[in-house]
Design brief:
Elements: E1 5-9, H1 13-25, E2 29-33, H2 36-45, E3 50-54, E4 56-57, E5 60-61, H3 62-72, E6 78-82, H4 87-95, E7 98-103, H5 108-120, H6 146-159, E8 170-173, H7 180-189, E9 198-202, H8 208-216, E10 217-218, E11 230-231, H9 233-237, E12 241-245, H10 252-264, E13 266-268, E14 275-277, E15 281-286, H11 290-295, H12 301-307, E16 310-313, H13 323-338, E17 345-346, H14 348-356, H15 362-376, E18 381-382, H16 396-403, H17 415-429, H18 434-441, H19 445-454
Parallel strand pairs: 1-2, 1-3, 3-6, 6-7, 8-15, 8-16, 9-12, 12-15, 17-18
Antiparallel strand pairs: 4-5, 10-11, 13-14
Helix pairs in contact: 2-3, 6-7, 10-12, 13-15, 16-17, 17-18, 18-19
The structure holds adenosine-5'-triphosphate.
């Protein structure tokens, strides 16, 4: 078998030489390029099994290359090397299918391990982000709000149904970043299929013309560039789970083919006459409004009903009350450990800011905000200002009263005193109706509850 071929895109000569030497010593062949133009030529000449790339390059950005690589060559796994402060880019790279990122200055032993993991990963299905895991590495859903407790119970109930040859298909719905991918993994890990593979197909990240080949596999010579036969992801899932992420992005033509596969529980590789049985459990997810897509003729109704035998609806983060703090502390610790720092402490004001924000990007946005804050501010305390949250429905009345030097009746004149007095007054006015009081104060229910606890009201 040929040694795996790696494309290295790095313009710092000394570093490129060190990586090149190390990878060759480990038995890989390497095409080392110092700019995007050469990297494109090299990838066309010999498509790599893995790309290792820097982001800031003399003739462009590494992400441009990653986009080009996915469109022109295919879903090649990529490792992105990032310098301090490039976290946004690293996250962008993850979305384009990068399998991991490495912090500079580079640890060559870590590089070697990650390269080996990436090359031996079962499938090119895109893993987008690290999931929260317990001590055994099993994925866990963090949070203790009533909404999350109900979700956990639902997951347990559904996981138990994942046995047998044709378990009910599950559709996971929820806004972007609510944890649909994580929920699918927890479902799999808690099911009788836990020891079998969990294979993810990211319908939005794969180029349209490659999805069919990725899902169903192909015979050698089935189409141009099919130089060898390749097993599809549905076959790779075996008796495990096939997670079809962002199912709303599946082209209409393929929706018909998937429907047939779901109905007959058999499939045919492209270019093959032989039918194969499908054993996998289908879990699909979407953040699109599929009902609306069906009305517009963009999603097949029959496929929707076939996929949506059981539904798992994930609540938005703004409806999870103080889970936001538990999650924030978890992400602080995780980021600090990853970058070998002491975890900073979230100040009281930072907690209030986190509770007040309405998190349109949900848990992903929270994770991103915390990671950036921990990386950029190497302090022992994480202040509200470090989070760089856009102020939203702040208690404008309170703030403006304070700014004008006013004292709310019953207040000691401090900002906290004014706030407490205003809350008490509003509660009294609304007959202790928390929802109505929150609405009048311009707060979410969670934010109001947090303050009620804080002031012991
Ligand atoms: N309850 C949770 N506990 C711990 N981590 C979570 C939780 N929910 C989400 N995350 C983390 O937040 C990030 C985003 O979650 P995930 O990718 O599962 O969202 P998603 O709903 O699939 O997003 P999209 O719709 O954009 O695909 C991941 O890093 C995930 O591990």
């Amino acid at each position: 078998m040929n040694a795996p071929h790696i494309l290295l895109l790095e313009d710092e000569r000394a570093l490129a030489r060190a990586i090149d030497r190390r990878l060759r010593r480990d038995g890989y062949t390497v095409a080392a390029c110092e700019n995007l133009a050469n990297a494109r030529l090299a990838a066309q000449r010999r498509p790599p099994e893995l790309a290792v790339l820097d982001l800031r390059l003399p003739d462009g950005h590494g992400l441009e290359f990653l986009e080009w690589l996915r469109a022109e060559i295919g879903p090649v796994p990529a490792l992105v090397m990032t310098a301090f402060g490039e976290l946004d880019d690293a996250i962008g790279a993850m979305r384009l299918g990068a399998v991991d990122f490495l912090k500079k200055p580079l640890d060559l032993d870590a590089l070697e391990r990650i390269v080996s993991d990436a090359l031996h990963r079962d499938s090119p299905a895109t893993r987008t982000e690290a999931a929260a895991g317990d001590a055994t590495g099993a994925p866990v859903i963090i949070g203790d709000s009533p909404a999350v407790r109900t979700l956990r119970r639902e997951i347990e109930r559904i996981a138990a149904l994942g046995r047998g040859s044709a378990p009910p298909n599950v559709l996971v719905t929820g806004e972007t970043g609510t944890g649909k991918d994580l929920a699918a993994r927890v479902l799999h890990a808690g099911s009788p299929r836990a020891e079998a593979p969990f294979v993810q197909v990211d319908c939005a990240a794969l180029p349209r013309d490659l999805i069919e080949a990725e899902l169903f596999g192909h015979e050698k010579g089935a189409f141009t560039n099919a130089h060898r036969a390749r097993r599809g992801l549905l076959a790779a899932a075996g008796a495990g789970s096939a997670f079809l992420n962002e199912i709303g992005e599946l082209p209409l033509g393929l929706q018909a083919k998937l429907l047939t596969a779901l109905e007959s529980r058999t499939m045919r590789e492209i270019g093959s006459d032989t039918e194969r049985a499908i054993e996998a459990w289908f879990i699909a997810a979407t953040n699109r409004d599929i009902e609306q897509m069906m009305a517009a003729g963009d999603f097949r109704q029959d496929l929707y009903y076939r996929l949506n035998v059981l539904t798992l609806a994930l609540p938005p983060l703004r409806e999870r009350g103080e889970d936001v703090l538990e999650l924030a502390r978890y992400f602080v610790d995780e980021t600090a450990a990853r970058y070998e720092r002491d975890p900073p402490r979230l100040t009281e004001a930072a907690c209030v800011a986190l509770i007040d924000h309405d998190w349109p990007g949900n848990v992903r946005e929270l994770r991103h905000v915390i990671e950036r804050a921990v990386l950029v501010h190497a302090d022992t305390r994480l202040e509200a200002g470090h989070l760089r949250l856009r102020p939203r429905r702040a208690t404008t009345e309170t703030v403006s009263a304070e700014a004008a030097g006013e004292r709310a009746p019953g207040s000691d004149g401090t900002l906290a005193g004014n706030e407490q007095a205003l809350i008490e007054r509003t509660l009294a006015e609304t007959g202790d109706n928390i929802s109505e009081a929150a609405r009048r104060l311009g707060l979410s229910r969670g934010a109001l509850r947090y303050r009620l606890d804080k002031y012991g009201l």
